[in-house]
Structure formats: C-alpha cells, structure tokens
Amino acid sequence: MLKYVPLICVVAGLLAALASAAWVMSRKVSNGRISEAAGLVQDGVSVFFKRMIIPLLIVTVAFSAVITFVVNWKAAVLYAAGCVLAFLAVYYGMRITVKGNIRTAVSSAVSGPIAAFKIAYKSGAVVGLLICVLSLLGLGAVLVLFKLKSVTQIVACFGLGASTVAIFARIGGGIYNRASAYAAEKVTGDYPDIGQESINNPVYVSHKVGQEIGDVCGMSAEMLETYVGSLVAAVMLAAVAVNSSGVTSTFTLGTAALFPLIIAGMGLIVSIVSMMFVRYSPKGEQTGPLVTASIIASVLISGASFYFSNELLQSYIYGVAISLGIICGLVVGPLSRINHETLPTILVGAAVLGSYYCVGTYGIALAAIGMLSIVTMRVSYQAFGPITYNANFIAEFSNLSEDVLEKTSLLNKIGRSTAPIGKSFSICAAAMTAISLLISYAAVNEIDSISLLDPVILVSMLIGAMLPFSYSALVGKAVESVSNGIFKEARAQLRERKELVEGTAEPDYKACSKVAADHSIRAITITSMLAILVPVIIGMLLGVQALGALIAGMVAAGALNAMTNRDISGTSINTFVKTVIFVSLVFSAVFINYGGVLL
Q1: Contact in structure between 590 and 542 (CB atoms under 8 Å)
Q2: With the CA atoms of 314, 317, 323 and 325 taken in that order, what torsion angle do they form, in degrees rounded to the nearest 10?
Q3: How far is the C-alpha of 562 from the C-alpha of 549, rounded, in Å?
Q4: Nearest alpha carbon to residue 359 among 307, 324, 311
Q5: What are the tens digits of pLDDT across the range 137-195?
Q6: DSSP state letter for 169
Q7: Claim: this prediction has a pTM higher than 0.85
Q8: Helices (DSSP H) in 73-112: which residue ranges?
Q9: Cys-Cys with 395: which of 160, 203, 325, 408 at CB 3.0–4.6 Å?
Q10: For residues 328, 329, 334 and 335, what is the CA-based torsion angle, rounded to 10 degrees?
C-alpha cells in the first residue's frame, strides 16, 4: 500500500495546482492598452516555445531510438516520459505566469497590493506544484509498473529526459534573456535619446519576454532537473544501501527505493499547507513571512521523515540524513547574502559528510532529497520575481497612474528581494544533487576508488574541471551572437522609420522577439553537443574510471563557477553538469563493455 503514497500525493498536488490556476484565471482582466501589453509578452513567449518544439522533438525521437538499441525499450520509454512530463511542467507553468502578469497589474490598479501579491504568489505556486507533481507522477508510476530490479538500472533515462528539456529551456531561455538585455543596451549606445527601458526601443518588449523565459521557463526546467536528479540518485543508491546494511531483513530494495519518493510526496503536501501562511508584508519586506513558512514546512517534513524512516527502514538514522539536507536548504539562502562562495560551499560539504557518516552513500542522496523536499515553496517565490517584474512593465507600458505604478514597483521590489534567495538555493541544491549522481555513477560501475596518481585519471579530472569554463565561454559567445542579431533588426527599424527615434510611433516589437527566439534556439546546438559528446568520447576512449574522474572535476569546478558567476553562463552550468552525468549513467554499460580502447 505504501508504494501508492507518492501517487496519492501527486493527485493532491495536482488538485492544488488546478485550484490555484483556476483562481488566478478567475480574476478580471482589463481590455485596451493593458491587454495589448500582456499580449506582446504572451506572443513572444509563444514564439519561443514554437521554435523550441521541433528541435526538441527531433532530439527526443533520435535519443529514444539510440537508447532502445543500446539499452532496451523500457529505458527508451522512461527517457521519452521524462521529456514529455518535463516539457508539460515547463510549458503550463509558463502559461500561468504569463496570465498572472496581467492579473497582477490589473489587481494593483483595482484592488491594491495585497490582492495583487496573492495573485502573483499563487501563479508562482502553480509552477512549483507542477514541477513536483509531474516528476513524482513519472517516477511513482515507474515503481508501480516496472519490476524494481530493472528500474534501478534504467531510471537514469528518466533524468536524462528532464535534462534534455532543461538544455533547451534553461540554456536557450537564458541566452534569450541576456542577449535581449545586451541588445537593448546597444540601441541606447547608438541612439542616446532612446533608453534601455524606453517604449520606443524596439528591443523593449523582447527584453521583458526574455525575463519571463529565462527566469521562469529556464529556472523551472533547471529545478525540475535537479529535483528529478535527486530522486533518481536515491533510487539508484538504494541497492547499495541494501547490500551494505545489516539493519533488519525488512530493509529491502523495495523499501529503500520507495522511502525517498514518499518523503518527496510528503514534502509536496507539507508545502501546500505551509504556503497558506505566506502573507503580504505592508513594509515590502517579504523575506520574513517566507522564512516563517519555510521553517514550518521544514519542521513538518523532518517529522515525517523520522516517522517513515522507522516505519520503512526500521531505524531513525535515515531521518537524520534527510534532516541534514533540510537544514542546509533553510540556511543556505541567508548565508549566500553574506558570502556567495565560501559559506554555502562549507554548508553543502558539511551536509554531504554528515549524511554519509550517518548511512553511507545512500545518505548523500537522502540529504539532497531533504534539501529539495519543499522545492514547491522555493520555486513559488523564485517565480514570484519575474511575475512582478512584468506586472510592473505592463503598468508602465499601459500608462497607468502614478499611484498604480507605485504599487507595482513595491511588488517588483519584493520580487527582487526573494529571487536571489531562490537562486542561491537552486545552485546549492544542484551541487548536492550532482554529488549524489556522481556517487550513483560510481556505484553503477562498481568503482570503489580512483587513483589521482594515475596520469590518465589526473588528465581526465583536469578536462572535467575545464569543461564548465569551456561551457561558459561558449554561452558567452552565443549571447554576443544572438544580441548582434537582435540589434541588427532593431537598428534596421530605427533607420527605416525616423518616427521611432522621434517617439511618435511604436516599433515592431514582435519582429525582435522572433529574431531572439530563432537565434537562441540555434545557439544551444554547440553547447548541447558538448554535453553529449564529451562523456561518450571519454567513456569510449579512456573507460569508466577516467569518465568518473572527469565528472568529479566537473562537479567541483561547476559548483564554484555557478556560485561566483550569477550570469547565464554561471547559473545554467548546473544544467550542463547534470546532463553530462545523466549521459554517462545511461551509457555506462556501453563504456564497460567497449570503453577504454586507448588503455
């Protein structure tokens, strides 16, 4: 009966998501200029998704065929399911936030900041709920439908499916966002009378669309990949835990694999309850209510982890590992405000070591589960930021009164205060998940240790440490190339239509949005190929141990790069790192049988 608990939680989470979305959609929407502004953002987002769907579909079909041939049909089904569910979570989460933008702006004008805050927060909550619901739906169904022994061998394919969508949404969306910002700056450089936020800047709207795509679509795709990755690692390490545990005969592969999914399901329920405690702060300082709600959720999920730890695994020690991750998730946001790199790194390291000494490598994956157990809440107030940004844009574009602009600006201020906390959390959670996936890779390939004195291992680790920097350079060049394409379109409009410079007419905003979408999707080709080809080449030529060393170097360098570099090339590094690990996991059998041809 307990194996159905994750799916029961999925039903509850889906009902909560539908109810929140229905409530947001029931709010009144004004016509005229407000609808026009919202329509421009919605059209820009739609163009990006239309440009993304064809190449994403081609990659999904091609990879499914390869996995069927190399692994088996079950693995291909899990990969395709991961792609589909991840895309649905990102797409429908994006749709509700776009709808939430205009309703937040209208509510600020009609009902005031309290009602507007509620709309923006509930819109963000839908994004968080969809991430957890659809991830748990896929992995929960896997445990119900497939034999557990085969699941632990192929479940990484589900994670690779989530990574495939994240590559397009996170990296493509981030490039779109940053390139649009740079293009808007370039217009200002050539035409000083046209400001970056000026309504007669042709890139003005695509910049706002970029914030929506990069900060909502990209963020939710990356968090989904991280969430799925932590669950996949825990399921894969369950077998290791069983083999190394002498607790009782009731500690089986079934209970060890089910435990993290139940905790994730409980986290979903607890988040739904705790989000009810989030209230608008009249002073505009929203971190207090968010911290309070997070603490309530953390206490509840920690209690649930101890109960199920004893019920399923006959020991409370596994609840300790979960709790260490929970504490890490609570503290890492405030610590990152003091120091971006040192303190968060030490905290993540302490959680990893503490959980390992509790229950071994299985504990590391459980700590990641604990950290991500209330990811619904984390995502909800991380998505709150871009929703309020664009609500403020809609108010400005629509020439609403100064009183309304003051209210939307206050919400925007709140969003800017909550977003950095969520970003720090997502970076550290991704780092812990990457560590647990690295341990999973070692377990799958029966690697007990790697000698750093072996020249092949040392060189492989150096290559791994280099990869995040190579990736950052590629993304930087892509941003520059895309921004040049957008600027070229904007400059052509300004040259051909003198009235735009004079401010007596409006530019063709949609043209710039289309150029941004086209160029951004094309730009991710090289970066995605890097994530796929590098592990395959190293695995085939140097073998599984060398690939493990490469992953270790990449995880360490990638985590620190992401913590120090908050631009797109830094914040999306974790997506790149996890994709490399998932590719390595999926094709491990090939590397074992045919790899190491140079050794």
Answers
A1: no
A2: -110
A3: 20
A4: 324
A5: 988 888 777 777 677 778 899 999 999 999 999 999 889 989 998 998 898 888 888 87
A6: I
A7: yes
A8: 73-110
A9: 408
A10: 40
